[in-house]
């Protein structure tokens, strides 16, 4: 998987790294136990500070998407569970997005269709 960042974006670089890795996992571009580039190597490839990559990786580790050790480096976790912390975060994010959709006049059916289309896209590897 090739990560691309946009230095002109308002989204912080570490967040872009984080988000692209999650999208890569959902699309099947990254597999469980797959080794990721070392922090230094990815920082060089993206032309960013090592601390930026480390912050993105650490966030993914905290969320349970990545694991690392000195011998095997950083790799994709083998098992992902919808634990209590994930479900709480999901509820909070969906709450805000649902509120914004309601304010903008989307119907429940339209919102459900958007979610269904997104989910199916990941199932199809898009």
What is the structure about, briefly put?
By secondary structure, the chain is mostly helical.
Description:
- There is one protein chain.
- The chain is mostly helical and 126 residues long.
- It folds into two domains: 13-76, Orthogonal Bundle (Arc Repressor Mutant, subunit A); 84-123.
- The protein has helices at residues 13-26, 39-46, 50-62, 84-103, 108-123; strands at residues 66-69, 73-76.
- The protein has a two-stranded antiparallel ribbon with strand order 1-2.
- Helix 1 (13-26) packs across helix 3 and helix 2 (39-46) crosses helix 3 (50-62).
- The longest helix is centred in the last third of the chain and has 20 residues, at 84-103.
- The chain is globular.
- The mean pLDDT is 93.
Class of the largest domain, according to the CATH hierarchy?
Answer: Mainly Alpha
Distance between the termini: 13 Å
SS element count, helices:
5
Instruction: Tell me the domain tally.
Output: 2
The average pLDDT score comes to 93
The succession of helices and strands, N to C, reads: HHHEEHH
Structural class: mainly alpha
Strand order of the largest sheet: 1-2
How many beta-strand segments? 2
Tertiary shape: globular
Assess the beta-strand content as a share of residues.
5-15%
Rg over CA atoms: 16 Å
Looking at the structure, the CATH topology of the largest domain is Arc Repressor Mutant, subunit A
Helix content percent band:
55-70%
CATH architecture of the largest domain: Orthogonal Bundle
Summarize the biggest pleated sheet: 2 strands, antiparallel
* pLDDT < 50 runs, ≥5 residues: none
Q: Would you identify the CATH H-level superfamily of the largest domain? A: Winged helix-like DNA-binding domain superfamily/Winged helix DNA-binding domain
């Amino acid at each position: 998987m090739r990560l691309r960042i946009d230095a002109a974006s308002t989204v912080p670089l570490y967040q872009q790294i984080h988000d692209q890795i999650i999208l890569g996992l959902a699309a099947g571009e990254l597999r469980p136990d797959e080794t990721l580039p070392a922090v230094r190597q990815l920082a060089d490839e993206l032309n960013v500070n090592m601390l930026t990559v480390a912050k993105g990786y650490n966030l993914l580790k905290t969320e349970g998407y990545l694991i690392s050790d000195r011998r095997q480096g950083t790799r994709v976790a083998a098992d992902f569970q919808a634990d209590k912390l994930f479900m709480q975060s999901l509820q909070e994010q969906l709450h805000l997005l649902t509120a914004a959709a309601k304010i903008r006049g989307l119907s429940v059916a339209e919102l459900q269709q958007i979610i269904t289309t997104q989910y199916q896209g990941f199932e199809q590897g898009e």
